[in-house]
Amino acid sequence: MAQEETTxxxxxxxxxxxxxxxxxxxxxxxxxVGEAFRSLxxxxxxxxxYGVASLYVLADTVDKSKxxxxxxQDNPECNKKVLIAAGDTLLWQALASVIIxxxxxxxxxxxxxxxxxxxxxxxxxxxxxxxxxxGLACIxxxxxxxxxxxxxxxDKSVRKLVGLPHEEQSKHD
Length: 173
Fold this sequence. Notes:
It contains six helices and no strands. It starts with 7 loop residues before the first helix and ends in a 12-residue tail after the last helix. The protein is mainly alpha-helical and 173 residues long.
């Protein structure tokens, strides 16, 4: 008799996901805010923002792993399912919430500051504030495209390598 398999989506669809459906989700964007403020604050503040975002990623990974474990603890492949879900969640969140957005905002801010300096747009203090405003303004516009990019990249690579069935791909995002 085949045991019923439970995906992350099935395990979480009956309840509110605190890491994805509540304001806690904004903690994942802390590093983008830190990058936007890089020109105005000490680098330890920026590094701290990466710490906050990384803790968010780890907390979401633990949460998803616990849910898969509870839903599959009688399944002989429970540990494998938990490991796949944890790895998938950790990698997706690290790429989509920390690495790619942080790099993107960093480059947007650096590029905008460079251009404003080169074309003498404003005095240095004003350029720093303008750079921060540009970085902050970009955040809402980069989130969904980056999420979608990471999902597609993982569906076409890592998720195929670990043998995640097609219907379960993208369910850990």
